[in-house]
C-alpha cells in the first residue's frame, strides 16, 4: 500500500507512526507491512490495524471525511434508529394515521420492537459494501415501498398487501386505471421518479466507508443476526406476542405488524404435513365416505353464480333505502334453500372464495394470505367439483365477464377440470359501469349458450363483476334509482349509494336469469352466492349478523326440491348443491356430505387436502387420475360469411359472433386496426387483400394474445 503523507498538516504524528513501524521491525515504505503483521500476536495486529486506519485517515481530513468516520463508528446505532423509524412510518401509512401508529406503538411495544428487529437484521447486509448508507437506503426503501403498497391497497380493499399480490403485477396496470384517478397516478409516477433520482444521487455522490473491509467479521455478524430470527420468533410465538395462524389476515396485520405478517405470506405457503399422515390413515378416512352414487337418468344441469361483492345491505344497522335493492334475491330466499355462507376474505380475494367453492378445500390450512391460483395451481391439477361431474358425463364450463388473464384463470381453469372458458374477450358486452366494470346482464345469454352448446348435462361456474369496487367517494350518479339515508359521512354515503345501485342492477340480472331458466326444458339447479363483502369500511359491530365474513346464498331449482335453510362454509357449497341433486361423487364432495359436523372433521379434511396436493396421493394409489385439460375459449364459433370493400377502400367483414376483441388475421398475421361495428360487422382500413388470401377473425386479449381462432375463409 502506498501512503501519501500530508506533512504540512501533521508532521509530528507521521514521524511517530514511522517510528512505531520501525520499532516493529519493518520498513514503512514496504507495501506489504500489514500482511507481515499477521504472524504477530493479536495485540500487535490490532495496534497495526489501528495504525493503518490512521494512515488512511490522513489522506482526507475534510468535513465530509470526518462525518464519514463518525458515521462508520456509530453505524450500528444508526441502523437501529433507522429500523425503528422505518417500522413506525410503515405502520402509520398502513393505518392511514400517525395517531393510530402511536397507539399501536404504545399498546404493542414488544410487537413493535420485534418487527423493528426484523428490519434491523436486513439492514446489516449493508456491512458487505463500502457505500453503507446507500445500501441501507436501498434496503430501507424496499421496506417502505412494501408499507406504502399496503397502505394503498388498504385504501380500496380490506385485505392487506401480501406476498401473493406481488405475483399479480401483470394485472397492476388494469387495476390502477380502475382504482386510481389520473391525478393519483400522476402523483405516484412523480413520487417514484423523485425516489429514483435520490437513489442515483446517493449511488454516485454518497459517502463510503474508507477503512479496511473486514469481510470475515462482517459475514459472521450477518449470519448470526439472521440466524437469531428463528429463536426470537419462536420465543414471541410461545409468549403469544405473535401468532403463526392468521384467522383474519386483516386483523393479523394490525395486531402483529406489517413486516412479520408480510414476510410470513412470502415464505409460508402450502399445507404442512399433518402429524398423523400415512396410507392407512387416508384409506380409513375414505372408507367412511362410502361409494359413489347418482342417478344417471335424472341428473340436472348445475349452475353456480358467484356474485361479486354481493351481500344484503339491509344488514347494515341504521341504513335506509328509498326502495328494496334486492327484491328478486329476497324472494328467492323466502322460497328456496338459503342461508349465510362463510367466505375466507373481506373486500377482496375473489379467487380464494372461488377456489374454496370449486375445490371443496379450506384455505385455513394454506399459508397466510396465499392464493392457490398463484402457487400450487400454477403447476398442478386439483380434484374439483368440475372434474367430479365430468367423470359422470357432464360438460364443464366457466364464465367471467372480465379478462381471461385476471387471476391467471385461463391457466388455472384447465387444471380445475373445465372444458370451456367464456371470458370478456368472448362476450359482446354493451354496458359498463362508471368504474369500467362489465355489467352482468350479458351473463344470462352466456349461461344459456353453454347449456345449448352440448347434448350432455352441463356444469356452469359463472363469476360476475358488476358490483366490483372501489366505490367512489364523490357522487357520480346524477339521478340514482335508489337513494340511501343513515350515514353521516358524505363520502361514505356516496360510496354506499353507488354500491347499492350496482347491487340493484345485479338483482335485476338474477331475476332475468331465473326467468330464463324457468322456461328451460331441462332440469336445472342454480346456486347464487356472494364472494365477499364490499370494500366499504364496514365493521362487524355495525352489521346485524355481526360478521364480516358472511354473505348470503340461495339454491333455486325448477324441479320442486324441498327447501332447507342452513348456514354453510364456502368449501361446502358445491357439495350441498350436488347433494340436492342426489349426486354423491368426488373425494371432498362426499366427505363434506357425509362428515360435516362429525368428530375429526377438520383433522381429516386437512389430511385429505395435504395428500391431494402435496402428499404421496395415497387416495389415488400414488398417482392422480386427473390431467390438465385443453381449455377451449368460448362456446360459439366466430365465422366470416362475406368480405367486401367500400368506396373508401375499407375492408368490410360480415359474419357472426364478433365483438370488441375480434381481430382480422390475414395469412396468419393479425391486423391491429380492426374496428368493431356490431356483432355481425368488422371494418379494416389500409389492408390490401389478394385472391387466395386466408382470412380468419380471432378473439384477441388486450395484450395481443390470440385466445380463440375463428373459422377459415378464403378470399
From TrEMBL:
Which ranges carry the Sulfatase N-terminal domain?
A: 300-579
Q: Name one cellular component (GO) term.
A: plasma membrane
Keyword Membrane listed: yes
> What sections of the sequence does the record tag as coiled-coil?
none
UniProt keyword Membrane present: yes
Record organism? Anaerobium acetethylicum
Name one molecular function that GO assigns to this entry.
transferase activity
Q: Membrane topology per the record?
A: Multi-pass membrane protein
Looking up Pfam families in the UniProt record yields: Sulfatase (PF00884)
Record-given protein name: Phosphoglycerol transferase MdoB
This protein's pathway reads: Cell wall biogenesis; lipoteichoic acid biosynthesis
The portions of this protein that span the membrane are: 74-90, 110-129, 136-156, 185-206, 218-235
Name the UniProt key words of this record, in alphabetical order: Cell membrane, Membrane, Transferase, Transmembrane, Transmembrane helix
Q: Where in the cell is it found?
A: Cell membrane
Question: Which InterPro entries does this UniProt record tie to the protein?
Answer: Alkaline_phosphatase_core_sf, OpgB/LTA_synthase_biosynth, Sulfatase_N
User: SUPFAM superfamilies recorded for this chain?
Assistant: Alkaline phosphatase-like
